[in-house]
Amino acid sequence: MTVLEQRGAYRPSPPPAWQPRTDPAPLLPDAEPYRVLGTESAAGTDPGLLLRLYAQLVRGRRYNTQATALTKQGRLAVYPSSTGQEACQIGAALALEERDWLFPSYRDTLAVIARGVDPVEALTLLRGDWHSGYDPCAHRVAPLSTPLATQLPHAVGLAHAARLKGDDVVALAMVGDGGTSEGDFHEALNFAAVWQAPVVFLVQNNGFAISVPLAKQTAAPSLAHKAVGYGMPGRLVDGNDAAAVHQVLGEAVRHARAGGGPTLVEAVTYRLDAHTNADDATRYREDAEVAAWRAHDPVELLERELTARGLLDEAGIEAARKDAETMAASLRERMNRDPEPDPMALFDHVYAENTAQLREQRALLRAELEAEREPSGGPGEEPGAREGGAR
Amino acid sequence: MTTVTVKPATLAQALTRAMRDAMADDPAVHVLGEDVGTLGGVFRVTDGLAKEFGQDRCTDTPLAEAGILGTAVGMAMYGLRPVVEMQFDAFAYPAFEQLVSHVSRMRNRTRGRMPLPITVRIPYGGGIGGVEHHSDSSEAYYMATPGLHVVTPATVADAYGLLRRSIASDDPVVFLEPKRLYWSKDAWNPEQPTEVAPLGRAVVRRPGTSATLITYGPSLPVCLEAAEAARAEGWDLEVVDLRSLVPFDDETVCAAVRRTGRAVVVHESTGFGGPGGEIAARITERCFHHLEAPVLRVAGFDIPYPPPMLERHHLPGVDRILDAVARLQWEAGS
Q1: How far apart are CA A184 and CA A190, in angstroms?
Q2: 3-class SS at B113?
Q3: How many inter-chain contacts (A to B, CB under 8 Å) are there?
Q4: How far apart, in whole angstroms, are the C-alpha atoms of residue A136 and residue A145?
Q5: How confident is the model at residue B333 (pLDDT cuts 50, 70, 90)?
Q6: Which of B176, B174, B184 is nearest to B137 (CA)?
Q7: What is the pLDDT of residue B258?
Q8: For the whole prediction, is pTM greater than 0.90?
Q9: Biggest distance spanned by C-alpha atoms of chain A
């Protein structure tokens, strides 16, 4: 008898206290990713919303190409492009109300700017003049998180706190497929479900965690299936379908706001570019696979729907592109100015009040900067000639 | 002069009282952790808080330290003041990433726009016969992380005062509770708790002239005992209680060392890479010309915390401290 047969033969009766806590059936995701564009349900979608989504998608695409170009000019240390993922990021961000909070991961700059953050400030982390450029409270957008999934429990805590205070605020927490393997992903989902916190988790499954494909990341039927084990509903959506993402996220946000608890949404999408400009994607994926996804491009899917329904014409497309070009030109122009970070700011935000030790170190740096400004007059050394000299 | 009722209280009771008073004064103060609610904590330090303030204010969380601290970050982002309990020192390690990658640097990352007033209470240290993972002294890890305050009381009055100060701080505080002192009692008036100095001020617990013992938390009573024993040897030892490892009180420590010219740093944590190395270096840098002997360290051995039946051999005791004091009769060239 094999071990498996032995296991099959062992059928104990359940212990007296055992009963299923929740019927898993309603929590299970659909078998196929939910779609709107190109289906009959598209007709019921607000044309104004679709046009708003389209304008943002075109801007998002242009933002990605412009930011990638800035890495080649040395203006950004690195840029993780989200070309191909515009629909997930923008469709999700636009499903939030102003009072809601967004917890983005490092690739989610499009969601961040869709919340109204200045496109330049969304790149501060990657430019390297500070770790976070924008005021999180002003836009209700947490800093872009670089460690994977660690921002998810923050979203749960914030949503829980808001509910304790009686505010109907929802938190949207974004993570990639690789991030779902992290312990913090598990802990955040578990806390959210136990506390019934008003949180929506959005997994953008773009196929790869740098080079590791989903099949090596998880054995689950889908990432949306993971929700069931925590006792929350899982939804599977076509991440390249902006209308579908917006609808599913909108439902999840309303569900959370109404006290229904968290939802896990998996948006199935694809990262058309490499992980970052520093990555060589040809090492781990076939051109044919990329081509198949290019044929399912989120911007084109929406453009086709809008033109087929007579909501968009060549002039409309041109206008959207022109608007995106204006944004890119402004981004380019402002990013090409040399940032002048103040070295003294290094000591400004470590503690509310500096320790004696930091006061000493601050004085040391100030003295060094003053010495740089007023060189002792050695031959060949001019004021400000040294790299990084303070002004 | 009015007489106040001063009766014995334990260090644990003072901590409970500190949280209770902080919660009563400020509705933003929330306590969360594993077992802190209905049970009142495995050491009963949160006893009664859930009953008085409800489970929304004193919350039994799922068993997950990263989740406890990670959700506390979000709560602080929304204006609450979470007081988090990590049940035992080594159980805090799963939360280390949250502490180091987020808690300690959120203020810095956001240029002061998002301070995180979180107090992380961690029972630490040995001496209670705990099994593996229940007796670590992890203060060096926290000291090495900029953005955190690291506080550790050794007396009943300080347990109250320093915890109140920590909860009121707009910056994150790792509040290390010497678990073997939880049941130590002191005359203390809970109705009029003694005001204490701000975080970052050391205190001279025993004045002396021959040498200075510099210590904190669980080793303070050992050092005081050693100082009493040293009198028989003709040594009049001064004992400094740091109370706060970050910020570090160079002023009090150096003034004490300059008075005596000799210093021994005493702690349970490992000597190699431990707090004593930092403290000895700071003293040497600032007081070199006042020193009559090298700064010595009496620390735990550089081993994983030993099993309970052997811990008495590991922990710095009176004899080991007195041996170090004897070595302070150092002569150049010896």
Answers
A1: 10
A2: coil
A3: 139
A4: 12
A5: low
A6: B176
A7: 97
A8: yes
A9: 91
